[in-house]
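lol ok so funny story. i was supposed to be doing the assay writeup but got distracted and ended up predicting the structure for this chain instead. priorities right. anyway since i did it might as well share w the group, maybe its usefull for someone
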Amino acid sequence: MEILKTLFKVLVIATAYLGIGPLLGFYLKGRDLARRVTLGFMAWWLVRPPSDFTLMLYSIPQYRGHCRGFEFNFLEAIALGLAVAALLERRKDFRWMPPGLWAWLLWIGVGLLSVPGALNPTYALMPVFKFAKMGFVFVGVFAALHDERDMKAVMRGFAIALIVQVVICLWGRYVHGGYRVTGWFEHQNPMAMWSYSLAFPILGLALSKEISPRDVMLFFSAYGAAGLVVVLSVSRASLAAFVVGSLLVMGGAFLQGITVRRMALAMLGTLAGVVIMAKAADTFMDRMGGDDSPKNDLRFALNQQSAAMHREHPLTGIGWNNFGLANSRPMGTQYSQILERWEENRGCKIYPEKFMANPLTESFYWLALAETGTPGFAMFLLFAALTLWHGLRSTAGLWKSPLGLMLLGLTVTLAVSYAHLQVERILVQTKNLTTWVIFCAILSRAEWWRRQAMAKGKAAK
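and the output, tada:
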């Protein structure tokens, strides 16, 4: 029976990647509206539960690692179709290696070095497979962005997704009586981070002078929905990130010029924020009352485990996606004992059988250091720095265009997200990961436009 299930999965995957994807490319060739609808659909589909657009081979749901099988993401098949359409149109701006993708692939290549020494090499291959396939999304989205209308189509899809998400969250909170609602996400933290990630570029578009009144209503409503989702998640870090990012984007808008629309939206957003926070103050105060000292903060003990793994395996780490094995009994007894001593110091009695599946560190950076060593960690920092550089350069180069504030919002999203990774490993999860790669592809295309404009300017001289 299991063999038949696997064969069926393989058939579905092959149909999506080798059939539907290429056929979509033939259909999209020369159809601008259809391409924009497809881009918007990709963005919108990310609000749905991951099971709607992923399929897993060799699934190990009981494992507590950040990757639990060889995951196929059907948005990659759509991205393949977008790339095929660009190839069929023989577009001169198509690139197999868009700006920044080389750094992404280099990071994965260095992570691959952790496989031979991993406790379970198969587990280590899972994120290599998952992250490498994200290159299809990078190339496909880059290929499909022909002008600013395509970028707006992506953001409209995300805006609709945010509005859908807040409806689901409100239903969960006030109909089902949930406390920290999760919507269509596995956990409230990735939901909150995904929401504020979309909020900043969408706010930038809402504040742009050239945006139509209809789009202003859509984008500002979506921005408000994102803020409400963050509040409903009761995530303190995400709420702080939302406030800081919003202030940065709003400040950028006022640097461009003060308009009646911007003043009205700023006042409306502030008023709505005050009202929502007043209503949610009790909930957040309950969370603020916790003891975050090292003695009582589990994250501290888990980071100590990561530091110990890095000291003993500085070059290749203990293996990508192997932290859940290395910090738990029986394979990682030496690191599990760090957590056990921490529990013992808190007055808890230690039962070894309770430490067979210890949680992962919540810090992405400590996780990267432990699993892929210093080289893997350095390559991630290289990619992060490069994407921020693309964001800053493209924002400056296209500042006076209708996309200037949107690009500022995307750059703020990356900056805030990379800072947030110190306490949350959110970007390894499928929905947040795919959104991140789409944003990096958008900034890559904007950087490409900036370079082309500079080249034309030099040629004119």
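The two ends are 70 Å apart (CA to CA). The chain has a mean pLDDT of 90.
back to the writeup now i swear
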